Amino acid sequence: MCEWIYAYGVKQHFSSVWTRENRPAKSTALSRDQIVRAAMELLDAEGLDALSMRRLGARLGSGATSIYWHVANKDELLELVMDEVFGKVALPDPSVVGWRDAASMFAYGLRTALFEHPWSVALVGTRPSLGPNAMEISARLLRTFSLAGFEGMALDYASSTLMSYVLGVTTPEIAWRAAMAGAELSDEGLMAGMKSAVDRAAVDHPELAARYAEYAGMDPGTSRELNFDFGLTCILDGLQERLRQASMEPGATRPGTATPHEAGSSKA
Predict the structure, then answer these.
(1) In this model, does residue 261 exceed pLDDT 60?
(2) Closest CA to 106 of 171, 166, 161, 170
(3) 94-249: CATH architecture
(4) Where are the domains of the chain?
(5) CATH of 2-85 among 1.10.10.60, 1.10.760.10, 1.10.10.10, 3.10.290.10
(6) Of 45, 37, 58, 14, which Cα lies nearest the Cα of 66?
(7) Residue 163 has pLDDT above 70, yes or no
């Protein structure tokens, strides 16, 4: 248990499985690895809402007490399973394959891991990523961008940019897949059923109508993959261009000329 002191002297407690030593399994008890594997199987089969200590204990043929030997609560268990997801992401040595290929392989690897464990997107950023797998890929990603030529805070910005891109594109795709599965619909079935409504909605927007017409002949899955490829290429191209610039100080360049206030306003 960690104790954090906030403003006005108010103390709050934060519990994390990574703030204490791993407890060895009792001779007759379950190991932490067994618990994590079973939890992931349950999550993959039924999702986050299905996971409880009682259900997990029943799946393991044991009581919840054996689980609480290793974790204090469900949140700590989720920290462990999330680190297992990170462990599935390969990040090759950038000194062997080059920084762009290493960063690209990381992006595709993370995307694949999230698709294989769709419940995990809801957990990213909600708990400390201090497990051995998360720390390993974080360190390797920093080495990748260090080899590219980034220094100081720009190292963190480059890593965050790549991670945010993967999460930003993949998260709504996973939500879409879940919605389709819940409605027992395929992409093709939905597109066919929505065609007349889409045509009506786009009647005053010829630009959109033209785009919808082109997509009508494409495989939806292939279209999403091409979209991801395009965005990833733009991210890596942008990072590479950033390296060519003389200064990489934060604020040396801006995304555009508009201020945040102007960007959020609507102009007639």
Answers:
(1) no
(2) 166
(3) Orthogonal Bundle (1.10)
(4) 2-85, 94-249
(5) 1.10.10.60
(6) 58
(7) yes
